[in-house]
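Submission sheet (multi-component)
Chains listed below:
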Amino acid sequence: MLKLNNISKRFNKDQALQPFSYEANAGQTSVFIGPSGCGKSTLLRLITGLLASDSGEIIFDDITLSQQTLYKLRQRMGYVIQEGGLFPHLTALANVSVMANYLNWDKDRIDARIDELSGLMQFPAELLLRYPGELSGGQRQRVSLMRALMLDPELLLLDEPLGALDPMIRFDLQQELKEIFNQLGKTVLLVTHDIDEAAFFGDILILMRDGGIIQQGKIEDLVQHPAESFVEQFIRAQRPCPALVDSEQ
Amino acid sequence: MKLLQRILVGICLALILIKVSADSTSESNIIIGSKKFTESVILAEIATQIIEDSGVEVSHLSGLGGTRILWSALLAGEISAYPEYTGTLIQEIFSEKKIDNFAQLETALAEKGIGVTSRLGFNNTYIIGMRESRAEELSISKISDLKLYPDLKFAFSNEFMDRGDGWPALRQQYQLPQVDVRGVDHDLAYRGLESGSIDAMDLYSTDAEIEYYKIRSLLDDQKYFSDYHAVYLYRLDQKRILGQQLQRVSGHIDNDTMVAMNAAVKIAGRKEQSVAASFVKNNFAIESSLTEISIYDRFLKNSKDHLILVAISLFAAICFAIPLGILAARRPLVGQVILATAGILQTIPSLALFVFLIPLLGIGGPPTIVALFIYSLLPIIRNTYSGLHDIPAPLRESAQAIGLPPVTSLKIVELPLATRSILSGIKTSAVINVGTATLGALIGAGGFGQPILTGIRLDDTSLILEGAIPAAVLALLVQALFELFERVLLPLPLRYQVENKQA
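Outcome: structure written.
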């Protein structure tokens, strides 16, 4: 579904991403995890083409990402960032339908899709005409996810999508999102620094440090067979909730 | 793309408008010009009335900026004739030719396609003058006496400060030691002299104020100042219409007559038109039909002229500066060049710009509009640039990442977010523009600058206010108008910058 062959990125003297290869299978959720500056956000920015890779290639469904294919491919990816990146001058509705309008969808089609998405994301229809500034943090992230899902993309790129939410709302949204991912069968690339969240969502976890992969595998592999002491340290530093650890076992 | 198209159409429209208004000035028949001092206005008015009597359609464009502006306007055919002084021509226009008699001057002018009448009769040379009481106190009676008082404060008309036969050469000739020497408007200098804030100034020997303000004319004991005989200059290609008529005035105005006419306007407060009418009636038995323009009509005309200047130049500047600002925000290197260039243009003094534009665009509206256009660019470019530049990176990147191409992202995301900044740039430009447009009167563009200039010349405060108050009110109105635009154009949540983040 998505192949990364030896992509890398250097900012001035800083090697943000070592030559990096990875293949995400369709329907699978891959979680990139690691401390700040490990290159996990850079990775998503390379895949969306916000940054150009210094080497290698990104292949999406047998199409290589390039200046020519970029705009078409972006329509097949949904991208959500921590603060949502909602346009403050547009209503929630306008934010969600911005690309559909650009692609000249007719009104009925847009309305139908919005209905479907607000049902899916449990977003009250009466809030659709509000501006982002008039919504709560959790509501804003729901709108961001609706915007990302609007064109029914095959790939979802989520960069700390729940990072700025308070724990209760975050917990609810985690539950809902996991169900939605399973239900829709999307390929998901999720970036987080929270091991609980990673364990909860990830079919595969990729632990990164200094722009390179330290270990990849299921959460059980990371816990039971850490590749190096950093893996243990990282997991321990997050103080996993005992109850969660129990349930995983 | 639509946005770009609209901008291009706008620019074309503005250029056509400028061209049309340029053509309309050059089509009207005969225009007599005058400088912005009373004597020149009276002489031009006399010429206008005499030519009108010969059955030719003629108008008087009064109070233009100075010798350079009149001379270039005459050469460019923007005006057909204007009163000038032999000394100015010899010292200023033909300073390289070393002309020392009238016949040589006539030849030099003819080479430029300009004809000249014989002398009108008076010699309006430069004089250095001091308040009678002050001169008495220091017992100064001639220019060489000034050498003894190095602390004296001088104020000369700006033209006198740097003309070939002005202050620098005078100082050289008499070895004058004074260092406190300033350039001021001639009419304002009289007030300075009266109040004692300056000690000496340059005068014209026919100035009505010499007697009125009790000024002592210092003797030019080294015969430094040359003669300034008044003549009319006219375009030789219009000699058939103008030459003979203007020549009729020659020899009819001696020094006393001129001083009396100047005094009638400046001291007694009569209109130049009516003073000139009395003169042509007494000398040539011509009855001029004086059209008295009411203060209301004058106000309407000034408002119309002023609004046209502001509207066209501002509109063109908006069409031109916003795309430049966008380009500057998108391409940082080009942006530096654009911003630096606009900054440099902003610093060109308006008079210098006018003198540069007259050969290209003539006088009146077009050069004024171009100058105002140039002065309006920087605030709009700057604010467009910074408005776009200051959009938070996550928003700009979100627009890209969801798949919007650059032009669409600009149109529906970036420009709306930069609207507040762009509008405030336009508002700044508009307010500056309204003020600067008053300078258009210096090159015959009319507007509220006209009564201000005339008011300064005639020491008439109510006339100054007739221009200054509407200009100030217009600036406030423009400001209010753009604040209204801001309310209408800004998307709802951007109108009040209250971000109620609840996260």
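Remark: Residues 22-28, 497-503 of chain B have pLDDT under 50 and may be disordered.
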